[in-house]
Amino acid sequence: MASVAVGSFAKKLRQGVCCLPRQEIDSQGLRTGLLSNTVESARIRGTDKTIDNAAMAGGFIVASGIMIPCEVFFIMKRLAFLLTILLAFLLTGCFALPVEAPMLPPPAFAQPVEHEFYTVPVMRGNIELEANPFAVYRPARTERHRFVPDDIPVLGIFVSVGDEVLQGDIIAELDLAEVRQELEDLSRSHARLNFELDLLRERHNLAIRLARESGRAVNDASFVASRNSLHADLELLEQLLGHVEQLNEQRYLRAIIDGTVIGAATFVEGLHSSTVMDVVTVSNQAFMSFSVRGEMAQLMNPGDQFEMTLGNEIFTVEVVDPYVFGFSAAYETEEERDPEAFLAFVGALTPQAHNIPTQGRVRIPLEEVYDVLYIPVSFLRRYDERDFVYVYIDGLRTVRDVVAGLEADGVIEIISGLEEGELIIQ
């Protein structure tokens, strides 16, 4: 019976079963021998299922000559497995965590370093806001000369720019050959009728003298009839001649005013007249004047006086009524021109003044403030609706809010926030 049990146990060992039932060990008394045999020959190759079955049967585990209850062994095995997973997780987690930055050294206290700044003091004075529109030379009167007949060949233009002309001078002529020929024919007819009338008058006078000498009555009925007929023909001829003379006069373009030619068309063969073509433009430059056009002209009223800079000289000018002084531009329609103010020099000008530039600047005061604090506008800082400056105090830059006012000519008024003489930083 005992041999059968031992053989059965040895067979289990060879099959890799390492659990010994308590009943077999206790009943057979084989604890010592079996333990030695187990240590020498047992190679645990069994599966967890075999071990679990043995543990359920209440057996023992033989390991390194020590018999351990199966329940304890399984608990230890599971703890070892859990510890292995926990250790792997901890090791992996340590390497995955971010590296902590090295601790910075504690800050060291240092005295503020004084910098060199570009500063200007807050000033006190007057600020004047002004406009400076351009003023352009305009003669007091300019006349544009055009032919009345349209599409007539131009015979010649007899003046050029810069020429001085007098009122009535012929400055251009049309080629009206037929009118000229007709005028010549009518002039000859007029002369002939006048000659015939003179002959009739002499014959009549001669007849009266002969009749008186002979004591006969004078029959002057024929003379009266002839005279009346000649007078009728002469009257009709003079009317026709006057009409042709008017046509002939239209071939001449005469200067309307005394002045200087400032524009003249170029004459070429085949040039024809046009009612819209300026042939010659003459201006009266005896009276010097300037004009300002645009919105600024609306700020200038007749009688107002302003300063105008021409070249390096400053002149006093006065706004004049263009209609009173005969400015030709005043007769343009309101739709065709911008607002325009005309300026005349106050006082007599020297002859050299006619050589001054033809363009200048007029100073128009718009707004003025007196005895106020101001700074260069480039020193003022703006952010949204906030105005501030950098004030220089004990070598340091300090921000100071201010209230700004009128700005003109690169400076700006400071209403509050600064004191006169304080240094501000750009």
Quick structural gist:
With 426 residues, the chain is α+β, with helices and mostly antiparallel strands. Helices cover 32% and strands 30% of the residues. Strands 5-13-16-15-14-17 form a six-stranded antiparallel beta barrel. Strands 3, 18, 19, 20 and 23 form a five-stranded antiparallel sheet that branches.
Looking at this protein, list some descriptive labels.
single chain, 426 residues, conserved putative lor/sdh protein from methanococcus maripaludis s2 fold, 3 domains, six-stranded antiparallel β-barrel, 8 helices, 30% strand, elongated, disordered N terminus
Mean pLDDT: 76
Name given to the CATH architecture of the largest domain: Beta Barrel
Cα-based radius of gyration, to the nearest Å:
65 Å
**Adjacency order of strands in the biggest sheet:** 5-13-16-15-14-17
Query: What structural class results from the helix and strand content?
Result: alpha+beta
Low-confidence runs of at least 5 consecutive residues: 1-58, 348-354
Overall number of domains: 3
| CATH fold assignment of the largest domain | conserved putative lor/sdh protein from methanococcus maripaludis s2 fold
Query: Strand portion, in percent?
Result: 25-35%
Report the strand count. Answer: 23
| Distance between the amino and carboxyl termini | 117 Å
**The CATH top-level class label of the largest domain:** Mainly Beta
